[in-house]
Design goal:
globular, about 260 residues, six-stranded mixed beta sheet, 10 strands
Length: about 260
């Protein structure tokens, strides 16, 4: 008797999530299931609710209604730092890097930020475990040769790599990437797509992306938002050929 292949666990589940800002309903009854290890793109026109969705998942905004589960744990009311400790990491569309720090120190602080002893004043030694984690994150994104460089000396593309490395530094289970290809050249976008494909498969990757080429190449599943609602989900090919997506997202709606 051949054994059945177990279905992957659900890493992130949203049930009826809504977020209201006064009279504006930015998210409308969002139901979302993302499997462990999945690469999921969230796309949609400006104002569709993508960044609001990320902020709700990360804990920066509390949902007005609905529930959020991380590996079946209800995290709806958890503060952002507690979600980070449970394995949720994110980047932002606009860089939040400290340009005066070195790459190594930036990554070390990213690791420390997920630990309970993050405010300790004890300087790390050469064999420090957290320093080793920081160096491993640099290796994963190809920044090992630049560990001693200041952030201000990096190119825009290298700074994007550093932001991804910092998201990886705390051994996350789910990473939210907000516009990772923003401002990159075509060559840098190709490198980014290849880098995302090399990330460990035990990490669930969810990203907002305006660049359709990056989104459709890097994702296994795509969710399309419009006016705060999910209007389409499926494989990149299914979404690309969806008439509703072509009308709403690609601007092909006829009068």
């Amino acid at each position: 008797m051949s054994g059945a292949v177990d279905a992957p666990r659900v890493a992130l589940r949203l049930e009826g999530v809504e977020r209201r800002f006064g009279a504006l309903l930015a998210l409308r009854g969002v139901d979302l299931n993302i499997a462990e290890g999945e690469r999921r793109a969230i796309i949609g026109a400006n104002g569709a609710g993508k960044t609001t969705l990320f902020n709700v998942i990360a804990g920066d905004f509390k949902p007005t209604s609905g529930s959020i589960f991380l590996f079946d744990e209800d995290i709806t009311d958890l503060a952002p730092q507690l979600r980070t400790r449970r394995g949720v990491s994110r980047t932002y569309q606009n860089s939040l890097l400290f340009t005066g720090l070195s790459v190594a120190d930036s990554l070390y602080l990213a690791v420390r930020g997920t630990r309970r002893n993050r405010l300790s004043l004890v300087r790390p030694g050469h064999a420090d475990e957290q320093r080793a984690q920081a160096e491993q994150a640099a290796t994963t994104v190809g920044l090992s040769p630049l560990l001693g460089a200041r952030v201000s000396e990096l190119s825009h593309g290298q700074q994007r790599q550093l932001e991804l490395a910092m998201a990886l530094a705390g051994a996350p289970r789910v990473i939210l990437l907000d516009e990772p290809a923003a401002g990159l050249s075509r060559t840098e976008r190709v490198s980014l797509t290849e880098l995302l494909a090399r990330l460990p498969r035990d990490i669930t990757l969810i990203f907002i992306e305006h660049d359709m080429e990056v989104a459709l190449q890097a994702a296994e599943q795509v969710t399309v938002l419009h006016n705060g609602e999910i209007v389409s989900e499926g494989t990149p090919t299914e979404v690309e050929n969806d008439q509703t997506v072509q009308q709403i997202y690609l601007g092909e709606r006829r009068a």
